[in-house]
Amino acid sequence: MDSPSPDTPLTVPDPADATELSCDVLVIGGGTAGTMAALTAAERGANVLLLEKAHVRHSGALAMGMDGVNNAVVPGRAEPDDYVAEITRANDGLVDQSTVRQTATRGFGMVRRLESYGVKFEKDEHGEYAVRQVHRSGSYVLPMPEGKDVKKVLYRQLRRREMRERIRIENRVMPVRVLTHPDDGRAVGAAGFNTRTGEFVVVRAGAVILATGPCGRLGLPASGYLYGTYENPTNAGDGYAMAYHAGAALTGIECFQINPLIKDYNGPACAYVANPFGGYQVNRHGERFVESDYWSGQMMAEFAAELASDRAPVYLKLSHLPEETIGAVESILHTTERPTRGTFHENRGHDYRTHDIEMHISEIGLCGGHSASGVRVDSHARTTVPRLYAAGDLASVPHNYMIGAFVFGDLAGEDASQYTAYEGELEQEQLAAAHELVYRPLRHPEGPPQPQVEYKLRRFVNDYVAPPKTGAKLSLAVEAFTRMSEEIAGMGARTAHELMRCAEVSFIRDCAEMAARASLARTESRWGLYHQRLDHPEQDDAGWLHHLDLRKSPSGAMEFTARPVEPYLVPVPGFAPPGGPERHLGEVELVPVATAGPRDSVPAARPRTDAPVAVEDPVVAAPHPRLLQLLSLVEDSPGLDALGPYLDDADPAVRAAAVTALGETAPAGTGPVLAARLRDDAPPVRAAAAAALRELVEVLPAEAALGDGLRAALAVPDTAVRSAALEVLRALRLGDAALYAGALAGAAVEVRVQAVRALVSVDAVAELAVAAADPSREVRVAVARGLAAVRNPAPEPLGPLLDDPDPLVRGAALAALAGTGCPADWAARAEAALGDPAWQVRSGAATALRAAPADPAVPALAKALADANADVRKAAVLSLLVHRADPEARTALAGASDDPDADVRAYAARAAR
């Protein structure tokens, strides 16, 4: 099924031409859990089909290398019950201990099985497992000297002859949906496509095992690189989305994975490697600051707090270690864990012997193996959908790590092996939906490319979903992810590889929405930084020592259930699951976020009396061949003589392009030519000329020819042209009061506002006073502000505007008094206006009083500090600062220092300077 030409443009295949496959057990994902599931199911006699969207030889996080096992419960060194208790504490009591205990009790057997395959675990001189301690309780870390070869060893097992007879591997096949039976909902197969050839692939199966890894590509790394993630970047949440759309319950999705990492490298800080050798985490003072006993969300909260303090940065300290220890650490960190890490440090001139390594925290992700979020499974890896299993980082078995992935892959393969291939009909509606999901980007190949859409999506994750969380931000996230469904549906692709990336973006979006909605539903804080709600900062065991399950309802909505924690197998002091029935929560309610605080109604404007000028839609002709000639010519910065033929071309598109080129090159004589083009017959040419004149206004000489051309343009029945002409005339001082006053009779508000600004530039107070009766509120507001901006302002012309029926005009006129002066009579009017119903008027009145005498301004402003509107209080504080020489003003300002509004507090504090 592989093709050597992955970049060959594709066409949408007919669903009827799909490649059909059949098996007893379908395993999706060829990483840690998937390979073990396939091996176990085959050993028990099942015919297995293993699908991997890359190549099983080097797929999955395991292929990146593994330096050791984090949770090996080796007899004589640790007890299963101790491990279960530790994981329970690390997860704030929210665990199904029956699943954790499977890892604890079966993990050592898995170590021995891996050894039989050829995986090497470190042993001491006596042949005993060299288990090391990382946390303050329990010794569970078992190093793997040749950990970089684990995937190679597993692949060798898959290719043994007896396994090849039972296991069919299809590399470069990416499922996008699990198929279910329409009657009982059981899993009966999957639908996907070949990531090299693009062919549609349909599989019938007796059981389906999802082993696709975490959603590591959820948050955006600090580097901005889409694939520069802490987790394996191929892990885009495929299984989370497939399980959700198949009807399975997911749980703990609000519990994010956040890890400590090497800053700028996004690789792990490797506490599990360095700490057993004597390394540790310190702040810039060299102080150890970690209080938590387990690498958990609580520890990450401590980490984040230290990074946000004046004790930052934070470092991985290795420089105190002896040479031989540092050499041993380097041999692991620079080969197995991240082969590029040594080069990174070398390029920075850093050496563990002389430099401690700066640390930071990773982007967020979803991962059962390193936190708690995933598909809900029981102690046999069964999901809530019959015959659908989940294993590895995809499954919600908290802090399960690599050994847990192997254990649950083994459990899934064992239980699924009892089923035989499904031979019935597959539901056509499900197949059609999967087909559309895969191939819709081919229908509009010019659509937005996947990298752009994915970047935008994951920036929203960083902005609104990453902790610390709030209901408002999470609600904005849900709105954004819902809105982006259409953008994702509009992505374009031409090749099979691009189709794969587009499908991954749809999975990421699904996971992002799940993460946001689940975080909204859990109205408490838990797991330290993993789920820190600023609006619900306390941990609420009475109400929330429950699993939060989500699933897709029959109507297609995302709904939630609070599920009691199962009775503990191992008692843990400090935790007492309340039991009781499940609480059906339904759909989560979003927090209103459409406006910043209570909305004040905007004063209504008078009905407009000036109708907009109708402009015919331009007729766009086919591109003229001369456009290419013109574009080539522009590269040589042509003069007017060279551009002249194009400016006079019969094709308006060519003329518009020539005007734009003229604006870019600006040769001598440009101004008058552009002004002439303001009178062109074609709207696109006029628009280009107006834009160019505005852009070049600072560099055009104020020559008479340009002024003549601009005056002539005032007769053009095009609002944009007349507005631009007035703006340039004003800026270049080429007009007079009479010219500008004449423009006040124009029909368009935009033109009249420009005329007011022009009148201000020539200090035409009398003409401005006439404009105070303009029917447009926008113009009258401009007049009020303009009367305060002339060279010799006086309050008298503002009189009519202070009585204006529109509160926005009255507010602007009052504020203008601060610039014109506010004598006693006018101050009385301003003081009275502090009781106006409209906050804009009250704010303007408070502003006016800064120019009034201290008595009566200060007492009136002191009362205004109790106004319900923060902008009024801010205006009062700013005016009181002008009067700060008055003792009463200083007293009032001191009282405002604890105002609930940050601006008011900050400005009030200036009184003490």
Automatic annotation (TrEMBL):
UniProt xrefs under Gene3D superfamilies: FAD/NAD(P)-binding domain (3.50.50.60), Leucine-rich Repeat Variant (1.25.10.10)
Occurrences of domain Fumarate reductase/succinate dehydrogenase flavoprotein-like C-terminal (ranges): 456-570
PROSITE patterns according to UniProt: HEAT_REPEAT
Highest taxon of source: Bacteria
Domain FAD-dependent oxidoreductase 2 FAD-binding, first and last residues per copy: 24-397
Pfam families, sorted: FAD_binding_2 (PF00890), HEAT_2 (PF13646), Succ_DH_flav_C (PF02910)
InterPro entries found in the cross-reference section: ARM-like, ARM-type_fold, FAD-dep_OxRdtase_2_FAD-bd, FAD/NAD-bd_sf, Fum_R/Succ_DH_flav-like_C_sf, Fum_Rdtase/Succ_DH_flav-like_C, HEAT_type_2, PBS_lyase_HEAT
Keywords: Flavoprotein, Oxidoreductase
SMART domains associated with the record: EZ_HEAT (SM00567)
PANTHER family xrefs: BLR3196 PROTEIN, SUCCINATE DEHYDROGENASE 2 FLAVOPROTEIN SUBUNIT
Protein's recorded name: Fumarate reductase/succinate dehydrogenase flavoprotein subunit
Species the sequence originates in: Streptomyces zaomyceticus
